[in-house]
Specification:
This protein is an all-alpha fold. It has six helices and no strands. Helix 5 (114-128) packs antiparallel against helix 6 (134-155). The two termini are 21 Å apart. 14% of the residues are buried.
Length: 173
């Protein structure tokens, strides 16, 4: 869902810049609930405020709910069928490919400075090898970002380089 949302709001309609979309994904991953719905809600809020968030939530959750309900109804009698099980085993690599594609797209647009790359690699090591809880990783990465932005400001560099602000209602829509 994330590549589809990105194609609609960044590439096609240009409601958000790629950097803004990546920020929304980061916040969406730390919020509870399905990430696709969170991304849609934050994007809707970014573009049209509270009404946009409500419409985006409904538009992203209701179709998925209806499709899953229909598939569950149809598959209830076929769940133990060897062909159905083989179908799902075949879908796993495709889902992995979709997730990897989304990760690659985000990495290309965010890992532009050595600091960003070091946080990403450090986070990977911390979660995979050191078994850090993702919330701890988010807290540490957030504090590191605050520290680096404070350091940039003291050096006279633009603090928060690469960050953006929320556009006003008239902009970008």
């Amino acid at each position: 869902m994330i590549p589809l949302i990105q194609a609609a709001v960044v590439d096609k309609n240009r409601w958000l810049r790629q950097e803004d979309f990546v920020d929304i994904i980061a916040v969406s991953q730390s919020a509870p609930g399905p990430i696709a719905v969170n991304v849609a809600v934050f994007t809707g809020y970014w573009v049209r405020g509270a009404a946009g968030a409500v419409v985006a939530a409904a538009g992203s959750a209701i179709p998925s709910f209806l499709v899953i309900l229909g598939v569950a109804y149809l598959l209830a009698g076929f769940a133990s069928n060897p062909l159905v099980m083989a179908l799902f085993r075949g879908l796993r690599p495709a889902v992995l490919a979709l997730i990897a594609t989304a990760a690659w797209t985000i990495a290309k647009s965010t890992l532009k400075r050595p600091f960003h790359l070091s946080v990403a690699l450090g986070g990977l090591v911390a979660v995979v090898f050191l078994r850090w809880h993702p919330i701890v990783l988010l807290a540490v990465a957030g504090l590191a970002g605050l520290a680096v932005n404070g350091w940039d400001a003291r050096r006279g560099a633009e603090p928060g380089a690469g960050t953006s602000r929320r556009p006003s209602q008239g902009e970008g829509a």
